Automatic annotation (TrEMBL):
CDD domains, sorted: AAT_like
Gene3D superfamilies linked to this entry: Aspartate Aminotransferase, domain 1 (3.90.1150.10), Type I PLP-dependent aspartate aminotransferase-like (Major domain) (3.40.640.10)
Record-linked Pfam families: Aminotran_1_2
InterPro entries: Aminotransferase_I/II_large, AspAT/PAT-like, NHTrfase_class1_PyrdxlP-BS, PyrdxlP-dep_Trfase, PyrdxlP-dep_Trfase_major, PyrdxlP-dep_Trfase_small
Name of the protein this chain belongs to: Aminotransferase
Alphabetical keyword list: Aminotransferase, Pyridoxal phosphate, Transferase
Cofactor: pyridoxal 5'-phosphate
Family: Belongs to the class-I pyridoxal-phosphate-dependent aminotransferase family.
Segment forming the signal sequence: none
Start and end residues of each Aminotransferase class I/classII large domain: 37-387
Length: 393
């Protein structure tokens, strides 16, 4: 195997030293080596891809749908996404000029931040949150400003937003993720409106990561784009709602003038997404069968959430019922202190259950554990029994 020439180590983009492999994966990989471990770590659906989507992908392959596609995605998928945004969230985005299909929401996050951030620019990021945003900001030479929301039920208040704006001069964007990974908390329409009222007086671009928008329990998802269409980039995709993380289909929606810039980054970076994957996503966004498959998965998640929240409560964890996504963010019982990493390590090694330490999700996550219920009810029951055993010993 070739070894890299030693003197090349000085040749790289220095911003690379500002990012590390995500500790979530590192922790999960280590814990996964423990024989018989039950994993509550997965950030992806445990369901199979709905039949209607599989068939669409098969048809696409049979039809020799195998050429470079339009850079912003097939017209059929962009049309489906446009219909979906209108039908589900009452958002108006033109399929030709205001929507681009990306390689998962991940690429959309990168393209959006790349189009906005130059070295030294600041980005507001309410935390705890998905660590990718900060990693991308760092890679671009920007500065991520964590806004700890743990004292406000994991929701950014308009007052805290205003304070952050008063304190920082170079803020170009804010990233909002709701329903949230890792807390499962989402924002009500009123809460979003209150933030929008503050942001309307600024030139900040709002990056709204709504990848879990279909997984809301007992309520309606509202997009901040409803209140702030002129300065919002909506990010979403089929990964969670269609249980198709491996197909890598996401999208961005924004006003045409904004989309032009995003599209530039996107087309230079990826040319176009894969045809069969795009074909598979069409019925997820815009068919009865696809929608029903999402609703069925949501019903299963909701039952698991109710079981896990009640069980954790009985075990002394502080846990408010999350109303979206598939995560519970549980506060350690007081007698265990706030060292979430130590507790999660002990739980993996002795209890044979793996969860993700809350501190991996940024300021405000210390003393919490993220547990994913994107796993079977049997696994959840086993995990709860094992946690109980460990706490009792
Ligand atoms: C909040 C959030 N945004 C984006 C992503 C990435 O989505 P995708 O798999 O579509 O790239 C994830 C994945 O876990 C996520 O939790």
């Amino acid at each position: 195997m070739p070894k890299m020439k030693a003197s090349l180590s000085q040749q790289f983009n220095p911003n690379l030293s500002r990012v590390q492999p995500t500790p979530i994966r590192v922790f999960d990989n280590q814990a996964s080596q423990i024989p018989g471990i039950v994993k509550l770590t997965l950030g992806e659906p445990d369901f199979n891809v709905p039949e209607v989507a599989k068939q669409a992908a098969i048809e696409s392959i049979k039809d020799n749908d195998s050429h470079y596609s339009a850079g912003s995605g097939t017209p059929a998928l962009r049309e489906a996404i446009s219909n979906y945004l209108k039908k589900h969230y009452d958002l108006d985005y033109d399929a030709t000029t205001e929507i681009a299909v990306t390689i998962g929401a991940t690429e959309a996050i990168y393209a959006a931040l790349f189009a906005i951030i130059k070295p030294g620019d600041q980005v507001l990021i309410p935390t705890p949150t998905f660590p990718l945003y900060e990693a991308v900001v760092n890679l671009l030479g920007g500065e991520a400003i964590n806004l700890d929301t743990s004292n406000n039920n994991f929701v950014l208040s308009p007052e805290a937003l205003q304070t952050a704006l008063d304190q920082h001069e170079n803020v170009k964007a804010i990233v909002l993720n709701y329903p949230s990974n890792p807390t499962g908390v989402t924002y009500s329409a009123d809460q979003l409106k209150a933030l929008a009222d503050v942001l309307a007086d600024t030139n900040l671009i709002v990056i709204a990561d709504e990848i879990y928008s279909e997984l809301i329990y007992g309520g309606q998802h509202t997009s901040i784009a409803k209140f702030l269409p002129g300065q919002t980039i909506v990010l979403n995709g089929a990964s969670k709602s269609g249980a198709m993380t491996g197909y890598r289909i996401g999208f961005m929606a924004a006003p045409a003038e904004l989309m032009k810039r995003l599209g530039m980054v996107h087309s230079i970076m990826i040319t176009s997404p894969s045809d069969p994957a795009m074909a598979a996503a069409v019925p997820i966004f815009d068919s009865e069968a696809g929608h029903q498959a999402t609703l069925d998965m949501k019903a299963a998640y909701e039952k698991r959430r109710d079981f896990l929240v009640a069980a954790l409560h009985d075990l002394g964890f502080g846990v408010a019922t999350p109303n979206g996504a598939f995560y519970v963010f549980a506060k350690l019982p007081a007698k265990y202190g706030t060292d979430d990493e130590a507790f999660a390590t002990k739980l993996a090694q002795e209890g044979k259950v793996t969860v993700i330490p809350g501190s991996y999700f940024g300021d405000g996550g210390e003393g919490y554990l993220r547990m994913s219920y994107a796993t079977s009810m049997d696994n959840l029951k086993l995990a709860v029994d094992r946690i109980k055993n460990m706490l009792n010993n």
